[in-house]
């Protein structure tokens, strides 16, 4: 993990996310690319220089907590661009070889759509979204909510590489509905096969729960979770994760930063994921029509 892309709008709300990114970069021994996207369609050289000064001032001013002594910070490159953040992120990911995007949860506010967007169209690299007000603490427990029977091993290895760099433990969660109780042994066996192919310290949790996000919330209430991970194809679960009114007021999982990354899926991601199920059923009908 060499470069982190931090997205900021220079607001007071984004200060906390910036400081979180600095601490994460220090833990990973990574460099930071700090990006500001203006609302204008284009910037003159004068406007670009003015915004760049503001961005550098922001970076220097909030580099340290007010109550702590100055410490050596990771290198920070500042960039300013005009237009939609999605386009700027894609360009930066390609030209600056970004390994990880880090932004606040408000990044999703401008992306609310009736139909979930393909994840690679939105975010071309793994992304951590930081809940408002959450401060960085040493990441000791990475919690990956996935499907033991439908898990890309290379994606799991990538999570383990991140955990190794943070000196963290990885918990793999699989949630199953009541109707699949008779498959517990089979699912657990798949989880054990997955764990055997990984180099990091792992533990497996097989939990009866109809709803993936409810399960994550209940897990966070009872266990330590410093970073949740979802591997999806689209933005459906990503958007649901940060809805404060999802099911429970002040849900525990909404206080935990979320790492979301792309993974191909061959089955619905959870029993309650209407979008995944509708897409999966559509594919099945299409296959039957072909045959």
Question: How many structural units, i.e. domains?
Answer: 2
Query: How many strand elements?
Result: 10
**Average pLDDT rating:** 85
Radius of gyration: 20 Å
Strand content: 15-25%
User: Spans of 5+ residues with little confidence (pLDDT < 50)?
Assistant: 282-291
Order of helices and strands: EHEHEHEHEEHEHEHEHEH
How many distinct helices? 9
Describe this structure in words.
The protein has 291 residues and is an alpha/beta fold. The chain folds into 2 domains: 3-130, Rossmann fold; 141-230 and 258-290, 3-Layer(aba) Sandwich (Rossmann fold), CATH 3.40.50. The chain is built from 9 helices and 10 strands. It has helices at residues 12-28, 45-61, 85-95, 119-122, 153-166, 184-196, 212-222, 236-241, 274-290; strands at residues 3-8, 31-38, 76-82, 100-104, 127-130, 141-145, 169-176, 202-208, 227-232, 258-262. Helix 6 links the parallel strand 7 (169-176) and strand 8 (202-208). It starts with a strand and ends with a helix. Mean pLDDT is 85; it is low at 282-291. This is Universal stress protein. InterPro entries: UspA (IPR006016). It holds the Pfam family Usp. Residues 1-104 form the UspA domain.
């Amino acid at each position: 993990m060499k470069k982190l892309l931090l997205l900021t709008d220079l607001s007071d709300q984004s200060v906390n996310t910036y400081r979180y990114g600095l601490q994460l970069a220090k833990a990973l021994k990574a460099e930071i690319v700090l990006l500001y996207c203006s609302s204008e369609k284009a910037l003159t050289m004068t406007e670009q220089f003015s915004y760049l000064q503001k961005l550098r001032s922001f970076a220097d001013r909030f580099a340290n907590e007010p109550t702590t002594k100055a410490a050596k910070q990771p290198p920070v490159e500042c960039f300013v661009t005009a237009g939609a953040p999605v386009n700027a992120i894609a360009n930066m990911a390609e030209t600056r070889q970004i390994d990880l995007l880090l932004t606040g949860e408000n990044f999703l506010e401008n992306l609310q759509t009736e139909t979930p967007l393909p994840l690679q169209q939105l975010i071309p690299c793994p992304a951590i979204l930081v809940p408002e007000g959450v401060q960085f603490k040493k990441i000791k427990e990475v919690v990956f909510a996935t499907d033991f029977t439908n898990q890309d091993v290379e994606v799991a290895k990538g999570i383990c590489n991140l955990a190794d760099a943070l000196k963290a433990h990885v918990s793999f969660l699989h949630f199953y509905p009541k109707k699949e109780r008779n498959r517990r042994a089979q699912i657990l066996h798949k989880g054990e096969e997955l764990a055997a192919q990984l180099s990091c310290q792992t533990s497996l949790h097989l939990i009866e729960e109809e709803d993936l996000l409810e399960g994550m919330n209940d897990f966070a209430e009872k266990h330590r979770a410093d970073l949740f991970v979802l591997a999806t194809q689209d933005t459906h679960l990503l958007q649901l994760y940060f809805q404060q009114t999802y099911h429970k007021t002040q849900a525990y999982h909404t206080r935990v930063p979320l790492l979301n990354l792309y993974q191909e899926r061959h089955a619905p991601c959870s029993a309650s994921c209407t979008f995944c199920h509708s897409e999966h059923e559509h594919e099945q009908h299409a296959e039957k029509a072909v045959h």
